[in-house]
Amino acid sequence: MNVLEKLGVFYESWTGEKGYIGCTENGVLIPFFAVRRSEAPVILAQYAIHAREYITTYLSMMQAEEFLKSGKRGTVYFVPAVNPDGIAEVIGGDRTYKANANMVDLNVNFDAGWGEGAKNVRGKSSENYIGERPFSESETKALRDFTLSVRPDVTLSYHSKGEEIYWEFFQEGKARERDFEIANAVSAVTGYPIKSAGLSAGGYKDWCVEKLKIPALTVEVGNDALSHPIGEEFAEEIFYKNRDVIKVLTEIL
Predict the structure, then answer these.
(1) What is the tens place of the pLDDT at every residue in 192-223?
(2) What does pTM read for this prediction?
(3) pLDDT number for residue 170
(4) For 11-47, b where at least 16 C-beta lie within 10 A, e where not — what string?
(5) For 8-67, what is each residue's pLDDT tens digit?
(6) How many Å apart are CA 109 and CA 73, to the nearest integer?
(7) How many CB atoms lie within 10 A of CB 233?
(8) What was the pLDDT predicted at 72?
(9) Which residues contact 156 (CB under 8 A, 6 or more apart)?
(10) How far from chain centre, in Å, is Cα 207?
(11) Judging by DSSP bridges, how do beta strands 29-36 and 75-79 pair with one another?
């Protein structure tokens, strides 16, 4: 089975809270599943917003099962594949494809410095195309609306590859101190260094930081020497490094 088929089986077997945040541009439902133990803290983790990075979808299923067993407090929402249309394109043979069905890079389509990223392009492309306007795509609107509805205390965005953590988007003062502390805690349990995102903008993390005023992390998994898409055989190793991320967030928030 490919990753989307395995996700479908996992979703059907999930006995806890689950549902859909919306649909893709091609009308495919975007699933979520949740573990609710206490009203706070609320964590939202999203995966595979970039098509070729679907190794993170495997990670989402492993992390959900781990948190379900952990008995830790909090509520965690997992959105395991924000971009199933794009994933289908990669499965079909375009191994480096990042965008959605409209050739929009979903992680530069958010209203936070939209169009100001150094690598942004303004025409349809397999990567870096910002779209016609912020939230022009069904997937980004769905993730935005779901985020606003569950009101997370922190968000996690899982990407590949590079094994590093990004957390900054022009925070200042106490917010910056808070977010840096959280990023350091995740760095400590993963072994991934904290890095500067440089001149990137328009991402989900950026929107969460700028518009919602909450801490938001982008975690890049998988060794940089690996090729896209990272194979399922690396999922266990990636999970091992990220097994305690959600647990430490429930403890620090």
Answers:
(1) 999 987 788 999 999 999 999 999 999 999 99
(2) 0.98
(3) 95
(4) beebeeeeeebbbbbeebebbbbbbeeeeebbbbbbb
(5) 999 999 999 999 999 999 999 999 999 999 999 999 999 999 999 999 999 999 999 999
(6) 33
(7) 8
(8) 84
(9) 43, 44, 45, 46, 216, 217, 219, 245, 246, 249
(10) 13
(11) antiparallel
Q: Is 178 exposed, middle or buried (0-12, 13-18, 19+ CB in 10 A)?
A: middle
Q: How far is CA 250 from CA 73, 167, 182, 241, 246, in A?
A: 7, 18, 11, 17, 6
CB-CB contact of 130 with 121 (8 Å): yes
Contacts of 92 (CB under 8 A, 6+ apart): none
Joined tokens for residue 91: 């499965």
DSSP SS3 for 12: helix
Place of tokens 């939209």: 114
Lay out the sheet containing 154-160: strands in order across. Answer: 17-23, 29-36, 75-79, 42-47, 154-160, 216-221, 164-166
Q: Is the pLDDT of residue 157 over 90?
A: yes
Residue that the structure tokens 């199933």 belong to = 84
Q: Which residues, 6 or more positions from 28, have their beta carbon under 8 angstroms from its beta carbon?
A: 84, 85
